[in-house]
Specification:
By secondary structure, the chain is mainly alpha-helical. The protein has 3 helices and 2 strands; from the N terminus they run E-E-H-H-H. It is about 55% helix and about 10% strand. The protein binds zinc ion (ZN).
Amino acid sequence: MSGRAAEIMLIQGRRLAELRVSHLFSQMSLEAKRHLLVHELIHCHFATAHLYADEVLEIVSMLARRAFDLNMEMGIDGMADAIAPFMPLPDF
Ligand SMILES: [Zn+2]
């Protein structure tokens, strides 16, 4: 998690995930924390796509895998832009 304020580990076959925050998280504004938490939680809705990328795209082509990851991150961040303002601010 070096250089990243948060990451989410999706648990295969379950509607569960482990969300971890680093020391960088505590230095962020409440709005930025909320956006990041929403971003990470949206990843849960794409668990199957992430699994496909892990198991298929990585074998087929590293370039395809990178394109998938970039497009996924951009899409999820756009969704977080739209959703985060409607969520409560974190209290930590
Ligand atoms: Zn992400």
